[in-house]
Write a structure and sequence with these properties.
Blueprint lengths: L1 H21 L15 E13 L6 E14 L2 E9 L6 E10 L2 E9 L2 E10 L6 E9 L3 E12 L4
Length: about 150
Amino acid sequence: MRNRITLAVVSLAAAGALSAAFIQPRAEAAVPPADVSGSYLGKGSSKNNVIVDEEPGRGGFAVGAFASQEGNDLFLTLIISPPGEEPQFWELYGRVGNGNFWAEGDVGDGERVVVSGTAKGAPGKIALKGDGVFLAPTHVSDLKFNVKQSQLVE
C-alpha cells in the first residue's frame, strides 16, 4: 500500500513539473504585429435571430472600416451600410497580433458588437475577415465581413 501512495505523489509532482515546463502563458510579442492601420472597403452579411418584435431575416450590406493600431491595441470603426438605410458607425476597441484581431464596443441603445477574425496580407494590401455578433434588446444578429485595405479618395 505504501508503494502505491508514493507512486501517486511522485506522478503528481512529475505532472506539475511537466505542465510548468510546457504550459506557459503567452507573453506580448517582442516585435509588434504588422500595422493594420488604414482604411478598408468590402462586403458583409447578417442573419437576425429574433427575440421579440423584430423581423427575422438575412441581408447583405457594404462595409467600410478605419483601423488605427498602437502596438497590439486596435481601434476599429466599422461603417455598416444596409441598402436603403442610413449607415451605422460602430466604434470598437480590441487587440491585434499573430494574424488575428478582436474588437468590441457599445454601439448605442443597449446594443453591443463583438467581432473577431484574421488580418492577413502585406502592408497596404491587408485584408480583415471576421465574424461577430450584434446584441440588441430585441434580437441577436450573426455578422460576417470581409474588407480589404484601400486608398480612399479625399
